[in-house]
């Protein structure tokens, strides 16, 4: 398993852990404890775990005596970026259109929606990018070691 | 000037025209005279854009022989770099778009939901502009590219 696969796998684990913990926390506080939904949504605080993704380049450092990225890895990375870019437009357009269609053209929303939208899109793109890298490498340890 | 360059000039100009169009629509939305005050200008601009799109398409495909090569490895590499530039500029722009309203209006304020559509359209057009400019910059803006 090469460096980009390890980073992709790490990011995937971190995002999925954050998502599972957030959904569990919201479900438990809303259904079991009986808190109002506005307070139960505080469970999204677990998404802060995704900040751990910033550690991935430190955890999987480039080794001086080895090639860290060859042409195949670059091509795979480019395709993953392209997939993320395509998904970006789907998610971004949906994120802009859905509130408009639900609330109506004359309605208004909090300005806090925009940073939340940015965060959601960022997480989705990282998820897609990591998934595409792992799928193209074969999801197992078949890739070249670097 | 090869096909990729012509295409880049075409998309750049079309995107700029559409950005102006969006600005006119946006300005008419917040105009004190009401939401329909800029309708005449919008209609004129739509015709202007349609004429450009028809003329531009003819220009891009003008004098093309079936035997001509569409693009080579260099064009593919330039397009790849342009996609990456567009993607990065998109993130910078989106970050600014998300943070600026919160910073200007404060966290407690609301904004019209139709602004999201303008954000969507504006971000898309600026991404297209960044892509086209990246292509033209890599070719050197002028007539230096290989003909195809």
**Amino- and carboxy-terminal Cα gap of chain A:** 8 Å
Q: Number of domains in the coordinates of chain A?
A: 1
Query: What is the assembly state of the chains in this entry?
Result: heterodimer
Structural class of chain B: mainly alpha
**Spans of at least 5 consecutive residues with low confidence of chain A:** none
Specify the helix fraction band of chain B.
Answer: over 70%
Q: Which radius of gyration of chain B do the C-alpha atoms yield?
A: 19 Å
Helix content of chain A: 55-70%
> Order of helices and strands of chain B, N to C?
HHHEH
Strand tally of chain A, please?
A: 1
Gist?
Chain A is an all-alpha fold and 146 residues long.
What report would you give on this structure?
- The complex is a heterodimer of chains A (146) and B (148).
- Chain A has 146 residues and is mainly α.
- Chain A is built from five helices and one strand.
- In chain A, helix 1 crosses helix 5 (113-137) and helix 4 packs antiparallel against helix 5 (113-137).
- By secondary structure, chain B is mainly alpha-helical.
- Chain B has one domain.
- Chain B has four helices and one strand; from the N terminus they run H-H-H-E-H.
- The longest helix of chain B is centred in the middle third of the chain and has 33 residues, at 73-105.
- Chain B starts with a helix and ends in a 9-residue tail after the last helix.
- The mean pLDDT of chain B is 80.
- Classes of the chains: A mainly alpha (146), B mainly alpha (148).
- Strand 1 (108-110) of chain A pairs antiparallel with strand 1 of chain B.
Defining key terms:
heterodimer; A: 146 residues; mainly alpha; B: mainly alpha
Secondary-structure topology with pairs:
The complex is a heterodimer of chains A (146) and B (148).
Chain A (H helix, E strand, L loop, with lengths): L2 H30 L4 H4 L15 H4 L11 H33 L4 E3 L2 H25 L9
Chain B lengths: L2 H27 L9 H22 L12 H33 L4 E3 L2 H25 L9
């Amino acid at each position: 398993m090469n460096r980009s696969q390890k980073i992709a796998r790490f990011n995937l684990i971190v995002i999925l852990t954050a998502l599972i913990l957030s959904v569990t926390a919201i479900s438990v506080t809303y259904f079991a404890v009986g808190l109002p939904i506005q307070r139960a949504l505080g469970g999204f605080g677990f998404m802060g775990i995704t900040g751990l993704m910033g550690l991935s380049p430190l955890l999987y450092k480039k080794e001086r005596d080895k090639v860290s990225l060859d042409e195949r890895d670059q091509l795979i990375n480019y395709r993953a970026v392209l997939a993320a870019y395509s998904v970006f437009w789907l998610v971004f357009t949906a994120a802009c259109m859905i509130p408009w269609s639900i609330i109506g053209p004359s309605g208004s929303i909090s300005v806090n929606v925009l940073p939340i939208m940015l965060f959601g899109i960022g997480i989705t793109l990282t998820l897609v990018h990591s998934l595409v890298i792992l799928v193209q490498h074969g999801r197992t340890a078949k890739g070249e070691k670097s | 000037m090869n096909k990729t360059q012509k295409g880049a000039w075409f998309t750049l100009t079309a995107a700029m025209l559409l950005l102006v169009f969006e600005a006119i629509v946006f300005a008419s939305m917040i105009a004190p005279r009401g939401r329909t005050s800029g309708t005449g200008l919008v209609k004129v601009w739509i015709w202007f854009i349609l004429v450009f799109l028809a003329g531009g398409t003819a220009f891009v495909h003008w004098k093309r022989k079936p035997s001509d090569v569409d693009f080579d490895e260099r064009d593919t590499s330039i397009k790849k770099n342009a996609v990456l530039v567009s993607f990065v500029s998109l993130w910078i722009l989106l970050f600014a778009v998300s943070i600026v309203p919160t910073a200007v209006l404060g966290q407690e304020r609301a904004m019209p939901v139709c602004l999201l559509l303008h954000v969507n359209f504006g971000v898309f057009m600026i991404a297209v502009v960044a892509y086209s400019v990246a292509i033209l910059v890599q070719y050197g803006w002028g007539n230096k590219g290989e003909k195809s």
